[in-house]
Amino acid sequence: MDKQQIIAELSYKAVRSSGAGGQNVNKVSSKVVLSFNMMQSTALTAEEKLLVAENLKSRLTVDGILILNCDEDRSQIRNKDIVTKRFLNLIADALFVPKERKATRVPKSVIRKRIKDKKSTSEIKKNRKKPEL
């Protein structure tokens, strides 16, 4: 995954942000909407596209476009930085492949120790009873 090439393929759109901000909110378009067409991307290989599509299938549109919004800050530039970092983290997490787990056998010494502990606990409980006469 080449970050610079992916960033070059991103498209940004500035729209009016909702919420508090007074009269300025009606004039300034500070909310940033990032869209990334994953299917037409040249920065990702075919295997990477399949992996991202599988891991982010709930966030992709029908056309395979990933859309992220950011209106956390009043500054459009800061919102653009935030949404770009969020996008890169999302793609990196989607491309992460966990290591395959190797099944292991329980060692005989562990089994012996467990049985020995059970027997000692059983003896302790048996000795708590009143002796039979």
Description:
The mean pLDDT is 89. A three-stranded antiparallel beta sheet has the order 1-2-3, covered by helices on one side. It has a domain at 3-95: 2-Layer Sandwich (Double Stranded RNA Binding Domain), CATH 3.30.160. With 133 residues, the protein is α+β, with helices and mostly antiparallel strands. 42% of the residues lie in helices and 14% in strands.
Task: Give me some keywords for this one.
three-stranded antiparallel sheet; single chain; 133 residues; alpha+beta; Double Stranded RNA Binding Domain
Describe what is shown at a glance.
Pfam families: RF-1. With 133 residues, the chain is an alpha+beta fold.
Topology of helices and strands:
Blueprint: H1 3-9, E1 11-15, E2 31-37, H2 46-55, E3 65-70, H3 76-95, H4 108-126
Antiparallel strand pairs: 1-2, 2-3
Low-confidence stretches: none
The first-to-last residue Cα distance is 80 Å
Global structural class: alpha+beta
Please tally the β strands and state the result: 3
What is the CATH class name of the domain at 3-95?
Alpha Beta
Task: Give the strand order, joined by hyphens, for the main sheet.
Answer: 1-2-3
CATH architecture of the domain at 3-95: 2-Layer Sandwich
| Helix percent band | 40-55%
Q: Remind me, CATH topology of the domain at 3-95?
A: Double Stranded RNA Binding Domain
Order of helices and strands: HEEHEHH
Largest sheet: 3 strands, antiparallel
Q: What overall geometry do the principal axes of the alpha carbons give? A: elongated
β content, as a range? 5-15%
What is the oligomeric state here?
A: single chain
Helix count from the secondary structure assignment? 4
Mean pLDDT, all residues: 89
* Radius of gyration computed on alpha carbons: 29 Å
